[in-house]
Design a protein that fits this description.
seven-stranded antiparallel sheet; Jelly Rolls; globular; seven-stranded mixed sheet; 24 strands; mainly beta; 274 residues
């Protein structure tokens, strides 16, 4: 079963007037993972699609989505799939890839239908593409790893870059995830914006009784949302994106836009945050 939704772009002036419920309706993606469903949110931020597939009782196949305006979903798009559950299979063009937790499958433009099966909980990101790159199974051992932070600042973490130019070629998708050491809870702080690209976050490995306080907005006009496990955030290019948890967690970050330069960001000084 395919369930879709469209999220339209919100400018920073409008966002300043939003209360809690409006912020959550526009920028939070709750109830993303549902048994026996493919759920897809088509955003008007760089036309990124945020989605999921949970093939609990049998295979689920993604063939087309009316919002893309194409006969086949991958006719003019690329996909990154991250498994955040137990081992599961993704089949593309007759070849099956078994993804363990924390592994990504990149699927290039022009590929056929995509079938999800097994015990996986698949997080899906898709962006428009201008050329085709090979379908690639990316394991954590293939990743580019960056150790950052310190216990004193409560942000000791490792950034695991999987869909990254040094690891796997793509048109515009960048994708990976960040893991925190026990006792560390702050992500992306000091924070930044990158007006040339939008970003999406998926918070996962969050205990049921824990929460993330996700911070967004212009640097001098910040807001926060309280986020639970396996909920996602759609982050506009004009917004900061950082947060703090009540316990350790992981989050998947994905970007789409003008380039695939991970370091293309405009840093925000701590003293400029409001």
């Amino acid at each position: 079963m395919l369930k879709t939704e469209t999220r339209y772009a919100i400018d920073p002036v409008a966002a300043k007037s939003f209360g809690t419920e409006a912020l959550r309706n526009h920028f939070r993606v709750g109830d993303l993972f549902a048994d026996d469903e493919i759920r897809m949110i088509y955003t008007h931020y760089d036309r990124l699609i945020v989605g999921s597939a949970v093939p609990t009782n049998g295979p689920l196949t993604l063939t087309a989505m009316a919002e893309t305006g194409t006969k086949a979903f991958l006719e003019r798009r690329e996909i990154g799939v991250l498994n955040v559950g137990a081992a599961g299979d993704v089949t593309v063009d007759g070849e099956t890839y078994t993804l363990e937790k924390g592994e990504i499958l990149y699927i290039g433009m022009g590929s056929g239908a995509v079938t999800f099966s097994g015990a996986g909980r698949f997080y899906i990101l898709s962006a428009p593409a201008h050329r085709s790159f090979p379908t690639t199974h990316i394991k954590e051992s293939d990743a580019r790893r960056i150790e950052l932070g310190s216990p004193e600042q409560a942000n000791e973490r490792v950034i695991i870059q999987l869909l990254h130019p040094d690891v796997c070629k793509s048109c515009q998708l960048l994708m990976g995830y960040t893991k925190f050491k026990q006792g560390s809870v702050w992500n992306t702080m000091p924070t930044h914006v990158h007006d040339r690209r939008m970003e999406a976050y998926l918070y996962f490995d969050v205990d049921a009784d824990q929460r993330i306080f996700h911070i967004m907005g212009e640097p001098d006009e910040t807001r926060h949302m309280v986020i639970a496990n396996e909920e996602a955030i759609i982050s506009p290019p004009w917004s900061v994106h950082c947060g703090v948890g009540t316990g350790s967690y992981s989050f998947c970050w994905a970007m789409a836009g003008d380039n695939v330069d991970f370091t293309d960001m405009d840093m925000v000084a701590m003293g400029d945050l409001r």
